[in-house]
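Reply to dn_fold:

You asked what the input looked like. This is it:
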Amino acid sequence: MYRMITAIALLFAASFGGGLFSGGAFNAKAQSDPSTILITGSNRGIGFEFARQYAAKGWKVIATCRNPESADDLKALAADYPNVVIEQLDVLDHNMIDALAVKYEDQPIDILLNNAGINGGVNNQTFGNLKYDVYKRVLATNTVGPLKMSEAFVNHIAASTKKKIVAISSRSGSIATVGGREFFYFYRPSKAALNMTMRLLSKEIADRGIIVGLINPDMVATDMLAGVDPATSSLPIYTPEESVSGMIRVIDNLNPENSGDFLNHTGEEIPW
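and this is what came back:
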């Protein structure tokens, strides 16, 4: 469990009020004009690491997940950093998304980070035994969810200073790099569709000054890679801290010129 009790955290603890499940109200004693990020799927893995690193930077973090009560690491983070607020959110529930957008209607959000995603399980997407109900759920989570989040929170983003919508994609969604025997019939198409969706969105809302980022975290040692031996992997496997640190640098460098581009966590462009 992450328990980040640092001098910075103590400083925040002395000056912030509120805490876990405090809704949309951030204490007025927070550091002057901090930026705000909303993260989906922030209870574990990459999403949690984003919440941890942005919290340590002093950002207001709206950390969402499906089951806050069982999100022990996230609750511990919020206890150490009162600038972290936990909200319940299932990206499959569009009414819940709309309700959260209304709850924060007066809160500018500098970065909307669409991180929540599922892979659907290898056994469910084997040709000849495809579970199409699982396919629908993968698409609804990985592709439709980020689009709905973007639509619901676009005004919050437009009202902010940084004005960025970011989707965590995957190199698996690159049609140009299909090869080997990675025949994930659900996961890979869902990420390819996400890439197209976000590229379209980047054009749709460019005139509002909003920048759209698509970032590949690379192979990261999270639950999704459970059982993969780093020593035998053909690709490097990064820690969540390494991958997220790189992605934050990429997010910092997003601009109107590279809006809608598909970028690796190290910054280089990935072929479509």
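Confidence is low (pLDDT under 50) at residues 1-33.
Hope that clears it up.
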